[in-house]
Amino acid sequence: MRPPHWWYDPDGGWPARVLSPLGMLYAGLTARRLARGAPHEAAVPVICVGNLDAGGTGKTPLAIALAERLLAWNVAVHVVSRGHGGRLAGPMQVLPSHSAEEVGDEPLLLSAFVPTWISRDRAAGVRAAEAAGASAVLLDDGFQNPSVRKTLSCIVVDAARGWGNGRAIPAGPLREPVRVGLARADAVISVGDAAAQDRFTHRWGPMMDGRPHIRGELRPLPTGMPWAGLRTLAFAGIGQPEKFFATLRDLGADIVATRSFDDHQPLGPSLLQRLEADAARLGAQLVTTEKDAARLPPAFRARVLTVPVRLHLDDWGPLDAALARLGLG
């Protein structure tokens, strides 16, 4: 489901005020869950890539960037994910033979870079990665999951949206209050262009209490594809499809139609047939994101172009220093 627009209004208006008691209850339940139980103490560093709010913020691109960084340092890094959108509970390693319906689209995408595990029980997933030889674990999401002790926690936020109206679900987009979440975080990575970054820093910077704040931006990989003037039907089922459409326009593509779907929405045969028929009628090429492409049937992927993007950080210094303190540098 698409989040209501008032989640991202400065104060949320009357809907946020009416739902505020439920938001306080939701935040209280999150705090209670975090205080419960004894977390698994891994024998290797556990680096959590999480967020404070619901929706797409750039967690997967940061996980890929960190994985590539650690691989360049000869660190045997593994990813552990819940496998959102997949039907298998795990713990199990994601293999090329798996489908997104089985393990989820994000783990399938991440598995192309480093060994990736899915596990509804995060602690069991981390134990499986350790047993398989991981010398560091990237915990994809899980910042509000208390079952594993994190050695380093990175919070990702969309700079344009920030933390919305500052209220918890359903009154706003937050899983927990900003100050409460930031108290457990080691670094904040905001993702967006320069103007959005400035607005984010102006509003939310005072809450960071000196924690490293790193700016980042998603940039398309140079693939040699001649996008300029290409008639396209662009579709996306990610947290913010409009960001993908904007990226495609920036590349010079002529977007004649767009289709937005829910995050992780299955791309079934009837839906794909409609997309293909619409594209043929418009004389357009189907284009989607890497994450959406992971949900396409293998036989259909050759008929759809993808736009791979990677996260570029303005300054790796704070993260490099934190990783070095863990003995990974």
Q: How large is the count of helical segments? A: 12
Do you know the CATH architecture of the largest domain?
A: 3-Layer(aba) Sandwich
* Structural shape: globular
Instruction: Count every beta strand, where a strand is a DSSP E run of 2 or more residues.
Output: 13
CATH topology name of the largest domain, in short, is Rossmann fold
**Helicity range of the residues?**
25-40%
User: What's the overall average pLDDT, rounded?
Assistant: 92
- Radius of gyration equals 20 Å
CATH class of the largest domain: Alpha Beta
Order of helices and strands: HEHEEHHEHEEHEHEEHEHEHHEEH
- By CATH, the superfamily of the largest domain comes out as P-loop containing nucleotide triphosphate hydrolases
Number of domains: 2
Describe the structure.
GO terms for molecular function: ATP binding; lipid-A 4'-kinase activity. Transfers the gamma-phosphate of ATP to the 4'-position of a tetraacyldisaccharide 1-phosphate intermediate (termed DS-1-P) to form tetraacyldisaccharide 1,4'-bis-phosphate (lipid IVA). By secondary structure, the protein is an alpha/beta fold. It has 2 domains: about 45-220 and about 310-325, P-loop containing nucleotide triphosphate hydrolases (Rossmann fold, 3-Layer(aba) Sandwich); about 230-305. About 35% of the residues lie in helices and about 20% in strands. It has helices at about 15-35, 60-70, 100-105, 105-110, 120-130, 180, 195-205, 240-250, 270-280, 290-295, 300, 315-325; strands at about 45-50, 75-80, 90-95, 115-120, 135-140, 150-160, 185-190, 215-220, 230-235, 255-260, 285-290, 305, 310-315. The strands form 2 sheets. Strands 3-4-2-5-1-6-7-8-13 form a 9-stranded mixed β-sheet, with helices on both faces. It is globular and about 55 Å long. The mean pLDDT is about 90.
